[in-house]
Amino acid sequence: MLSACRAAKRALSATPPSPTSTVVPRLVFNCCVVAAATSATACSSIASRSLVTSTGATMADQDLSTGCQTPADWTPVDGKLPVMGSESLMSKKEHGTSKTPVQSNLRYGCDHKLADRICNFNRHYAERSGYLSSTKWLKTVRDAEEPVVYYDSNSGKPLFRAPVGRSFEDFHAESKSHGWPSFRDQEVNWQYVRVLPDGETVSVDGTHLGHNIPDRQGNRYCINLVSVAGNPVGEEA
């Protein structure tokens, strides 16, 4: 694993940043290695990566990571979940890949600036692993009598509902173990969520959500909390 990471680091260091990129990589990144025998994804944080946006503003190393990416050999199966979408969903719009910025009063105490960058000006990066534990998320949802609905931080549309078909303890344990909220097929609102051919998981409105990281149990949608911390449409104020 480390040799692959070192090779990637050397390749990155040798590649000059593009002046036209919205986000320009500066340092090295967290490395994800897929264990082929189990389809499990192991993440090893070997260094942080500082990002500079096109406006020159820097996102702190500790606030951003590459997260875990979909296995390179993953392919969808016709007639089975997930519901697939096309690259056109993430075309450039009025505000990055979306028409509007994220809502001003995100739930769980999520950082607005971080959320806007991840949701709207990003295709691969993620909030840092364990970010959800630094927010009010657990305190807000753990005693809910019904499954909690998670709303698009841009549009306010309902994207996920969890836990469904398992206990909250199982949902929390899986999310905490992986470092990001982890949803299963039955917890996804497929009216508004799509998965692109490379595994990137997005909303139909162009919000970057995360990635599909399948394991032995099936599809697992590894989602940024800042991407699903919105309020229902009509309740943003």
Describe this structure in a few short sentences.
The chain is an alpha+beta fold and 237 residues long.
Task: Please supply descriptive tags for the structure shown above.
3-stranded antiparallel β-sheet; 237 residues; 16% helix; alpha+beta; globular
Count of individual beta strands: 14
General shape? globular
Percent strand equals 15-25%
> Strand count, sense and closure of the main sheet?
5 strands, antiparallel
Element string (H = helix, E = strand): HEEEEEEHEHEEHEEEEE
In round numbers, the mean pLDDT is 80
What does the oligomeric state look like here? single chain
What is the gyration radius calculated from CA atoms?
Answer: 17 Å
Specify the number of helices.
4
Query: What low-confidence regions span 5 or more consecutive residues with pLDDT below 50?
Result: 1-58
Q: Which bin fits the share of residues in helices?
A: 10-25%
Structural class: alpha+beta
Straight-line distance between termini = 47 Å
In spatial order, strands of the major sheet run 10-14-13-12-11
Question: How does this structure look, described?
Answer:
The protein has 237 residues and is an alpha+beta fold. Helices cover 16% and strands 20% of the residues. The chain has four helices and 14 strands. It has helices at residues 2-13, 112-120, 137-141, 168-178, and strands spanning 23-25, 31-35, 40-44, 51-53, 58-59, 64-65, 126-127, 148-151, 158-162, 182-183, 193-195, 200-203, 208-212, 221-223. Strands 10-14-13-12-11 form a five-stranded antiparallel sheet. A three-stranded antiparallel sheet has the order 1-4-5, with no helix packed on it. Strand 8 and strand 9 form a beta hairpin. It starts with a helix and ends in a 14-residue tail after the last strand.
